Amino acid sequence: MISEIDFQDSIHVLGFSDELNKLLLQLYLDNRKEIRRILSELAPKLPSYHSLEWRLDVQLASRSLRQQIEPAVTIKLHLNQNEDQSARVLQTDPSTLLHLIRQLEQALGEMKTNHCRRIVRNMK
Fold it and tell me: COMM domain spans which residues (predicted)?
């Protein structure tokens, strides 16, 4: 559901002739609803977040090593997909978890840029 100007900008970079660009624009405007319906049917049905459980385990010693500190974070992620619920269990060390958090925060920050907002708005 993009505007005529956005559509023209998108196909202009493909290097087609002006006549072909006008023809593609007309075809798009005539079949916009049909295109949207087909694309929504082709969209993958991804699982969605339901809840999260987590636990911090720390191994302080073992028979062979008297003083060792080995932390581990266990996460149980509950997901919904097509009215079905499933759970995934993930385990990682705290440093990897911190790296994952930083990457996700960076991705969220990227989503707030004007470029990403425009793309998301055109996808809806």
Answer: 48-115
